Amino acid sequence: MRDRFLRACRRQPVDRTPIWLMRQAGRYMPEYRAVRERYGFLQMVKTPEVAAEVTLQPIQAFGVDAAIIFADILPPLEGLGFQLTYEKGEGPVIHNPIRQPRDVAALHSSDPRETVAYTLTALRLVKRELNGLPLIGFSGAPFTLASYAIEGGGSKEYRLTKRFMYEQPAAWHDLMERLSQLVAEYLIAQVEAGADAVQIFDSWAGALAPADYRDFVLRHTQNVVATVRSRLGEAAPPIIYFGTDMAGLAGELRQIGADVLGVDWRIDLDVAWAQYGYEHAVQGNLDPTTLFAPRELIAARAREILQRAGGRPGHIFNLGHGILTETPVDHVRYLVEFVQSFPLPAETP
Ligand code: CP3
To answer: Per UniProt, where does substrate bind (predicted)?
Structure first.
């Protein structure tokens, strides 16, 4: 059953729980570091053969149940006119962030089929090598992309983002509309290039009060999902919406229209699933830091998650957020084997 990941996204029965890991291709892998020594990160993303090679590394090393294309959420912003670099130890930096409404008006319109053609080519290359194993495409969500566009990089409090949102609501919604169109177009292009499912990373939306999510973000996230679905019709893939610290936003998440909702480790999986509603599949939710613990603890925490899923169709095992640098590779292999050999518990009614 090579499609168990897609079946789980659609809440169909599977032979065992599928597992993949966010950021599964990355610096914790010696094979990745060997390639990375020769290229800058953006250069890797922009060279389809290299992106394809790195995408396949965790498939070969661990036999996970899905591949996720090697890319990043920020390069599509270059098409709007943002200058992006990745600095050692700092992560991404946008050198011309938005500070005023006129900065939004000055953004370029862009076609991701041209500006991130390299990722679409990489998808086509990977697809040929997967023998039917599902391939996940992804994009940042409008809010998380807006936060980088306004802060100019990562942030703890999102003070600039929230101020802009509160003080310049018209420009904010203009920005969010431009980003939503870009995201929808990019996801559609990825599906046309071979992605079998798409994940929308709203990593930092959990920083918002529910009322702010409702007033400033929800409609744009909904628009992305609705556009992908209506444009692709029958060919629309499962859509995964992921964020961290989302436990207080369950009522809003239910309204997005995603097939699968990501769950981080700050909430028990069954509690989240009940709040999100069983019409959604769920993906998660091991704390990535658990992979630094002894094997017995990794096994205990993974077992608990599988038991909380209760054999109900629609659970995809994953971490609650991306795998951390320096994670021991043998612990990753151990986790994947543990989940893949775990007998599905009889479904709890
Ligand atoms: O899951 C995968 O294996 C696919 C690849 C992937 C990357 N970034 C590769 C990457 C994915 C899905 C992302 C998404 C991403 N990128 C998000 C959303 C997911 C999340 O983690 O919340 C965000 C917020 C970004 C932005 C970003 N890119 C940051 C903050 C950083 C720096 C932090 C870090 O880990 O270095 C990056 C760089 C980045 N993206 C790396 C990788 C493998 C490390 C680059 C390197 O080799 O130096």
So the answer is: 23-27, 72, 148, 203, 321
